[in-house]
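fyi for ur records
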Amino acid sequence: MKINRLTIFGFSILFFLAGCGTTGKDFNASKVNNIENHVTSQSEILKNFGTPFKEGIQNGMVMWTYEFNQYNSIGPDNSKDLVILFDKKDTVNSYRFTSTRSE
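which gave:
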């Protein structure tokens, strides 16, 4: 059975494209430094980061998650996550930011 170069090239491209993708919504991580526990309001977070990728409840507190992940078959993966817990006054109780790249 003869396989031509075009078929091999097509399968190679398909292999690399299958290994690439993104999840979440990109956000401006440079604004994370402006967040202050018990000071920054929920409306300020919404203004600075937009609508969260996920919303939930943890220990009775509203939790917003901002997440962006890039998967790449030929290079390094990139990800950044910001998880914010709001107290009953709708201010930041605590937050956690993680990233695989320097912002």
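The CA atoms of residues 86 and 92 lie 5 Å apart. thats all i got for now
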